[in-house]
Amino acid sequence: MEKWQTRSIYNAAVWYCHHCQDRMPIVMVTEDEEAIQQYGSETKGVFVISFKSYLDNFWPDLKAAHELCDSILQSRRERESESQESHGKEYPEHLPPEVLEAGIKSGCYVQGILNVNKHRAQVEAFVRLQGASSKDSGLVSDILVHGMKARNRAIHGDVVAVELLPTSEWKGRTAALCENDSDDKALGEAPSEPMPTGRVVGILQKNWRDYVVTFPSKEEVQSQGKNAQKILVTPWDYRIPKIRISTQQAETLQDSRVVVRIDSWESTSVYPNGHFVRVLGRIGDLEGEIATILVENSISVVPFSEAQMCEMPVNTPENPWKVSPEEEQKRKDLRKTHLVFSIDPKGCEDVDDTLSVRTLENGNLELGVHIADVTHFVLPNSYTDVEARTRATTYYLADRRYDMLPSILSADLCSLLGGVDRYAVSVIWELDKTSYEIKKVWYGRTIIRSAYKLFYEAAQELLDGNFSIVDDIPEFKDLDERSRQAKLEELVWAIAKLADIARHVRAKRDRCGALELEGVEVRVQLDERKNIHDLIPKQPLEVHETVAECMILANHWVAKKIWESFPHQALLRQHPPPHQEFFSELRECAKAKGFFIDTRSNKTLADSLDKAKDPSDPVVNRLLRSMATQAMSNALYFSTGSHAEEELGHYGLALDKYTHFTSPIRRYSDIVVHRLLMAAISKDKKVEIKENLFSNKDLEELCRHINNRNRAAQHSQKQSTELFQCMYFKDKDPETEQRCISDGVIYSIRTNGVLVFIPRFGIKGAAYLKNKDGLVISCGPDSHSQWKPGSLQRFQNRITSTTTGGESTTFHLFDHVTVRISVQALRCHSDTIRLEIISNKPYMTPNTELSHQSSLLLKSELVKEVTRSVEEAQLAQEVKVKVNEEEYQEYRQTKGRSLYTLLEEIRDLALLDVSNNYGI
Q1: Alpha-carbon distances, residue 204 vs 94, 112, 161, 265 (angstroms)
Q2: Could you give the CA distance from residue 219 to residue 541 in angstroms, rounded to a whole number?
Q3: Is there a contact between 652 and 635 (Cβ–Cβ < 8 Å)?
Q4: CA distance 155 to 179
Q5: pTM to 2 decimals?
């Protein structure tokens, strides 16, 4: 068969050569030496050569590609050599695919995704059941896979087949806090109750990707021998095992973050084999660490291509963009009839949504949500559409963003900026003037001109009646006093009316069981120069809820419309009810404060959380809501054709149908929904409209991709925020720096410590009560902590430290303690925040209000210091290290298009079907 395939490919190459009339050489690349000998000189103009020869002859100056090729070939030679040697088996062989399939069908094996515990990566992983396995196995919890032997070469994220062990061999998950690099013996703590435990018998689908790694230190490399070629590199992600690669550049690259790929993992090898790909940057360098986060989340941020940019409309001073007469005829023009305005965070450029509200002649109200009409500019299956589909979302990091669409759209022509004409897709309701009940709804394309571009804080000030903020609103600056007063009254009435409508809409959802959940959210604020201005924990404002409720209302009504029109191929957003066992920690923590949390439904959960308030400590309710958030299932996009109607609901929002319609600039899901809505309301019932939509099968595949990219966006945002937190605290002495001391709240008890939440910085982390030397924390009469010999005793809602001298200190759930913040600097992984309890009393300041003000100032200083430190370090590095540019060029990522990049693009295109059958 292989020889037939090789011959067929060669015949195709000969045909192309003759078809081109010998005007260009045709190259057939193969590693089959027999084929090279047989066909190499048979036909003039057709070259049959190895990939190494192809590089040598056609790309002799592409050093990065040669380095990569050598690495891959060396890795392959080593695998072949090892397979011929009689090594003992390190792992059992995987079962054949047909055996795995039959075993899963019969119930002998269960199928699921391997999830490695990053805190105990060497010993603890879990398999979350998927598909038929979750229904047929009778299991209600994950399956524990204990140890590397039982994991059997499966890597985090792989889809695996697992064989359950006898109940006598079941183990429990560890309840102790542990360092990421701790081994099992170092813990010495009893595990929790035994849970279903199994071993991996086969891998159904590998989840291998690019991995960022660090080379051994200079001393470690030298200990392996000066000419050592096989090097064990340590992945940045704790959940990935060390990878063995072949290189002679270990010393050169030991201070860099490097990308590698896994090639194989033989049963005779302790570690997987891989090859070098490219260099990202120096360890600790801000840009290098950001690049690491992007690679680890498989985020590509290459510039938009020339082909994509050629599709963009023009908007320049010489050739300004204007509303076309054709569009004016097709659209409802709201520019002179509606007061339209936006409310967004400071510095927002990609304004997706605007709002309007007015009184109709019949006395009823009209509420409008107007969304950027992205699909007018982004046509189905265009280059821009395919790229947006691949990216799926805009990626927001702590100090930057990577757009899904080119900036001419995202920050200009699609952005609903103030004072300019823009195309929109609108949902407009007529509401009863007193009850706000919806009388009727209209969907359609519109032309708007936003009158004000407000930020949240300004809108809240106007809502609260503080009109001094008007001086900071640009649209009011050039008005005379009379016009200013009239427009102010008009705007304040509109904001107040929107807030009142939103309260009623929210109350209606509350009666159905809508949840108000809490997450730890910190955002980096940028100034006009794009420098980091502030790091701000989320401060809830009523206008946040006002805008959110209007967006939720629009999303809900659009979901109903597209489902009614396309019940078998509509893109909706599903939030299934969570598993009851996930609420156990929430219930226990609430019980410690005397609260009962009823989790039988979203309504009972919402009511319970509303009642679980400690008047003396508002942080308690925040933490309980945060725990409820963690217990939730993930909300996911899906195609309605694959689900029954009763499965379409959104648990958290208490809505029977929901989708995403309001952010098409930054979410591809919303672009799909806009096209569905336009098809649903179109008076033109031509067959082409339906043919331009996704089939149920293709939409399901697209939803899986979007869900995956959304998770990547969430993880990268969180990791970049943690990076800035660490960079701020890293250069401060925690023993003398007052800014490293803060108030913390205990929210979980473990066998050797507690988990603490620091509201001031939005940090959650572990605080040990027993150190590696076996000493325990003791707090004397002055409440300050010391490390002394002793023991710990854990109870349900508290933990007690007792010294050998009889001194006893007890820490309870929700206790406020004083915490010292420091950073554990790690060479191979991301730095981590370390928390140490230095007093069992709350952190006190002379004046609470002054403390709050100073904390805001501190956050501003935090980001400024991080930025300044990075700049100083870069200058120092330039002076200290004179890098030979020609030598370094071989290992760094090329700025131009390399052969490796070209091959990567070919691989990605092979994975992405962009044909008309797949298109929208």
Answers
A1: 10, 9, 7, 15
A2: 54
A3: yes
A4: 21
A5: 0.81
